[in-house]
Design brief:
By secondary structure, the chain is an alpha/beta fold. It is 45% helix and 16% strand. The chain has helices at residues 3-29, 48-60, 73-82, 97-102, 127-133, 144-148, 168-179, 193-205, 220-223, 270-275, 277-285, 290-301, 307-320, 322-336; strands at 36-37, 39-41, 64-65, 69-70, 87-93, 109-110, 116-119, 121-126, 158-161, 186-189, 211-215, 230-233, 262-269.
Length: 338
């Protein structure tokens, strides 16, 4: 090797070494270095997107993020409260207030900021049936003739596509059917929501009347569009359960759909958040538009639902909102340096 080649080789080696040491130093400077995160989400696959976006940001801060475990909501709250898991990205407020409080409330959980705002929920029927029979309120199904329009199994009762067992919405639906005098004419069908909703969609496409409960963000309202394909039903008065028994669910426009508009928060173990100010700040500042979740959920419904698909969708969202994403990380890092 001649002298000039030796110099070039040595220079390249020095640059490589400098870059390597620099990247190691940067990794060492990341606030999450050496800290394990155990994320949880519900068994609703469509909540993976918002969870994995949080996981990606935590990884960018250096945290050792373990694979997300899927559990029922009530298990998630008790597991996070005990410190056996770290956080969940989908705390529905006020729908899950009683679960949250039963597991320890603000004494056990860190919950700052609002991740997703304006999550609506309630009852819908197909527009064709609503207009033909002038149905606009759930209580009208006390009329056996109207209820029978939605009877799919031949028992004479309207079949209402409801919630999975153990979800807070299922308890509310049962309480409302009783409060509105519908126990004899309407039956809530519980089960795997994605499966029973797929059956509902099939009935709709066959031209049959449909009655169902749903929420946003979720894919359903991107397929059965309110105002075009289906209509929201009002309820005659507010009727809830537990600590929300006296909650007024009337909206500012005077209409009452039976459920308050919810916000979704990231909820974490309080002790862990106190020991990890960077993650705590991240949880507080992350905000995800509900319309973006709806759009991603529709992609999943249309077949792009593998783990890799979801990671690609997270990457796409970050690329499209790079300045926002970088801002979250900068705020988190600043919180760690205080």
């Amino acid at each position: 090797m001649n002298h000039s080649k030796k110099l070039r080789h040595g220079g390249l080696l020095a640059l490589t070494l400098t870059a390597l040491l620099g990247s190691q130093a940067m990794a060492a400077d990341l606030p999450g270095k050496g800290v394990v995160v155990k994320p949880l989400q519900s068994t609703i696959a469509e909540e993976s997107f918002q969870t994995e976006l949080v996981n990606r940001a935590l990884k960018a801060l250096g945290y050792d993020v373990q694979p997300t475990s899927e559990v029922d909501y009530n298990v998630a709250y008790t597991t996070i409260a005990s410190g056996d898991s770290t956080y969940m990205a989908v705390n529905w407020d006020p729908l899950q207030t009683d679960m949250f409080n039963a597991a320890g409330g603000n004494q056990k959980f860190y919950r700052e900021g609002t991740y997703i705002s304006g999550a609506a929920q309630g009852y819908l029927i197909d527009k064709k049936t609503a207009e033909k029979y002038h149905i606009h309120d759930l209580s009208q199904l006390k009329d056996p003739k109207l209820a029978k329009l939605f009877d799919d199994n031949g028992d004479g009762k309207a079949d209402l596509t409801g919630c999975e067992p153990g979800w807070g919405c299922g308890e509310v639906i049962d309480a409302q059917l009783k409060a509105y005098g519908l126990s004899n004419t309407v039956q809530q069908n519980s089960g795997n929501y994605a499966a029973i909703m797929a059956d509902t969609l099939t009935r709709y496409r066959q031209g049959k009347p449909v009655l169902y409960y749903t929420w946003t963000p979720y894919w359903v309202s991107n397929v059965l569009k309110p105002g075009k394909d289906v209509l929201w039903l009002t309820v005659p008065f507010s009727a809830n359960t537990g600590s929300q028994k006296n909650l007024d669910t009337t909206l500012p426009n005077g209409k009452n759909y039976g459920f308050p508009v919810n916000n979704e928060h990231i909820v974490a173990n309080k002790q862990w958040a106190a020991a990890n100010p960077a993650a705590a700040k991240l949880f507080a500042v992350m905000k995800l538009p509900l319309a973006d979740v709806n759009a991603q959920n529709l992609s999943m419904h249309n077949g792009e639902s593998s783990a890799q698909n979801i990671q690609d969708q997270v990457s796409g969202w970050i690329t499209a909102h790079q300045a926002t994403y970088n801002g979250w990380l900068d705020e988190a890092k600043a919180a760690a340096n205080k």
